[in-house]
Amino acid sequence: MKNLPSSRFLPCAALLMAGLLGMTSARAHGDTELLTSDLQAAPGSAGVGIVGRTETSPYQGGGTRLDLMPLYLYEGERFFLHGNRGGVKLLEGGDQRLDALLEQRLEGPRPNHRPASLNGMALRETGIDAGLSYRYRQPWGTLQADLLHDVAGASRGSELRLAYSYDWRSGAWTLRPSVSLALRNARLNNYYYGVLPGEASPGRPAYAPGAGVNTTLGLNASYALSQRWRLLAGASATVLGGQVADSPIVQKRVLPAVYLGAAYDFGAPQRLRNQDGQDGQDGQDGTPTYFKLLYGKATEDGCHLVKIITARCLSTDSTHPTSISGVQVGKPFIENFNGWPIDLVGYVGLTHHNDRGLQRNGMQFDVFMKGIYSGFPWSERVKTRLGL
Questions:
Q1: Is there a contact between 304 and 339 (Cβ–Cβ < 8 Å)?
Q2: Contact call for residues 271 and 283 (beta carbons, < 8 A)
Q3: Are 38 and 133 in contact (CB under 8 A)?
Q4: What is the pLDDT of the chain when averaged over all its residues?
Q5: Among 62-66, 91-95, 125-129, 135-139, which is the least confidently predicted range?
Q6: What is the 3-state secondary structure (H, E, C) of the chain?
């Protein structure tokens, strides 16, 4: 595996800072790219980490939450994956970059941790935003603009994010202050912070906050323990727009958050060898891209996973014949990890849930890592892989 200078790790560290701010369910500002936008990874590089974050919920009775989550980064020649955001680089050169992207908007209360103030209200679901991101980097700092619109049918809302950040480095330390504005339209705010007439109660009148602007201030830090490992820490405060703060289901206007974590940089993939024994190209040009089409149906009671994969239970549920279908795209993060016949592959995908009237159909956005072993004695004759 190629060793990268420690500065190459910074995108992974910044990703984890931003991903933490973006992966919690009740976040107000929704910007997962603010802290990664002006840092660039070597093509084909990858990183993973784990972060714990505590934050104040915007919802009445939501209290303070603690989340622990894994996060991923992949930076290819054309494609990228930053936490819950992935897409295609339309322009990348010098001090400018333009991306087309999909991002999962993890906003609203978690279904299994809904505060009592939301009882009797319809579930506010996560959405999938599609949009464009533009970044302009200079020695005096970085400007970024994101234009996003929900395409999953949750809020059907739109948001324009404007951000400025500056990097200060000293030895093993990197500090990054930032400020961002999120200009949210009425559909977006009404969905997550409004109360429909049919949801009103004596202590919860109907309310529509309308369009507004949220402001976020952040200070994030990373410390290089080694060439591969980084410690992460940071704090942020999001100030909700006045009309959102006046909602009967919102408890506070200022939402603080603090996090701690660690991350590991895999670096760039090893050079691949062609059939003639010559070295292939580094990074994405020499690695395969995996495409998967998925379809599945609900099984009957007692038909668990072990029975299914051992072909002892192949019947489906005729009473509630729900189904899923989807597509996944994967790209190797690392091939022949540590010289072993193990590849680490990162996947992104979309899955559609057909719930046959039991509940509203929905879309699922998948981001995951898969380890694949291919060192079987017969693999030269019949390529066999075992993945987890």
A1: no
A2: no
A3: no
A4: 80
A5: 62-66
A6: CCCCCHHHHHHHHHHHHHHHHHCCCCCCCCCCCCCCCCCCCCCCEEEEEEEEEEEECCECCCCEEEEEEEEEEEECCCEEEECCEEEEEEEEECCEEEEEEEEEECCCCCHHHCCHHHCCCCCCCCEEEEEEEEEEEECCEEEEEEEEEECCCCCCCEEEEEEEECCEEECCEEEEEEEEEEEECHHHHHHHHCECHHHCECCECCECCCCEEEEEEEEEEEEECCCCEEEEEEEEEEECCHHHHCCCCECCCEEEEEEEEEEEEEECCCCCECCCCCECCCHHHHCCCEEEEEEEECECCCCCHHHHHCCCCCCECCCCCCEEEEEEEEEEEECCHHHCCEEEEEEEEEEEEECCCCCCCEEEEEEEEEEEECCCCCCCCCCCCEEC
In whole angstroms, give the CA distance from residue 17 to residue 207: 34
Higher per-residue pLDDT: 322 or 43: 322
Tokens 């919920």 locate to 57
Distance between alpha carbon 217 and the CA centroid of its chain, in Å? 20
Rounded average pLDDT over 348-369: 86
Instruction: Give the separation between CA 329 and CA 80, rounded to whole angstroms.
Output: 12
Contact of 60 with 201, CB cutoff 8 Å: no
Neighbours of 134 (CB within 10 A): 16
CA nearest 313: which of 295, 328, 301, 327?
Answer: 301
β-bridge mates for residue 143, sequence order: 136, 164
d(CA 242, CA 184): 13
